[in-house]
């Protein structure tokens, strides 16, 4: 288990208490400790307790989940259930807001929405039926396009969300697909970056590089010709190589 700070423990406990407000912070933390502060396992255990007094939204959200649950694993939506659910929300599967939704519902990986986290996420968002969920998705879309802090959180989330089991880097083709979804209209040098990464660089993408590309795209908005680019700055080497590539064009 990786280190969990006191502030992170408090945040996790607060999320768990959304499911059953009668749970004290101490009780929440003790339950989380039992499951090594794994929110999915702790919330699943809590929801399995029939004697608990849950938030009124919980049974309604659970009913929505049951409509789309995977036939082989009834505690996950699975790929087919996810597709059907997203389509019923009126969202195109290629719409960037699907990534924002996955982030808010604590999806651990592409095509997976565990029951307990699905319920927790929608309780937190305050929606318990498809109509209300559609409205919340529209709000997420507004936030994604107008709230830089939220966009950054979603962008950083997509790295681990798209990793395959055991992997620590993203294949370049996967990275390009996500960059196209999220950065195409936000990165002044987007086309050049994609050409460089696919035709010249060609390597897998680390988490550090992934995060810094967003920062670089923000920088490039004010210096699209890279005239003020600081080669001694704290940019990863791939960005230094890209800047040299652009200047040589």
TrEMBL record:
Coiled coil: none annotated. Keywords: Ligase. This is Defective in cullin neddylation protein. Neddylation of cullins play an essential role in the regulation of SCF-type complexes activity. GO terms for cellular component: plasma membrane; ubiquitin ligase complex. PANTHER family: DCN1-LIKE PROTEIN 3 (PTHR12281:SF31), RP42 RELATED (PTHR12281). The keyword Ligase applies. It comes from Geotrichum candidum. GO terms for biological process: protein neddylation. The keyword Metal-binding does not apply. Residues 56-247 form the DCUN1 domain. GO terms for molecular function: cullin family protein binding; ligase activity; ubiquitin conjugating enzyme binding; ubiquitin-like protein binding.
């Amino acid at each position: 288990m990786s280190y969990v700070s006191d502030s992170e423990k408090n945040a996790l406990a607060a999320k768990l208490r959304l499911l059953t407000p009668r749970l004290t912070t101490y009780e929440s933390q003790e339950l989380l400790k039992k499951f090594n502060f794994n929110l999915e396992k702790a919330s699943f255990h809590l929801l399995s307790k029939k004697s608990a007094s849950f938030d009124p939204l919980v049974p309604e959200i659970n009913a929505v989940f049951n409509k789309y649950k995977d036939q082989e694993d009834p505690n996950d939506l699975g790929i087919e259930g996810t597709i059907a659910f997203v389509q019923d929300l009126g969202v195109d599967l290629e719409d960037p807001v699907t990534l924002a939704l996955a982030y808010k519902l604590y999806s651990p990986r592409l095509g997976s929405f565990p029951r307990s986290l699905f319920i927790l996420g929608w309780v937190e968002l305050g929606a318990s039926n498809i109509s209300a969920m559609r409205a919340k998705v529209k709000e997420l879309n507004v936030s994604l396009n107008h709230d830089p802090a939220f966009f950054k959180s979603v962008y950083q989330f997509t790295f681990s969300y798209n990793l395959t089991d055991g992997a620590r880097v993203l294949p370049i083709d996967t990275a390009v697909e996500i960059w196209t979804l999220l950065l195409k209209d936000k990165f002044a040098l987007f086309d050049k970056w994609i050409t460089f990464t696919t035709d010249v660089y060609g390597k897998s993408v680390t988490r550090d590089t992934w995060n810094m590309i967003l920062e670089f795209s923000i920088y490039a908005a004010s210096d699209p010709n890279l005239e003020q680019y600081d080669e001694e700055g704290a940019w990863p080497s791939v960005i230094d190589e890209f800047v040299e590539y652009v200047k040589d064009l």
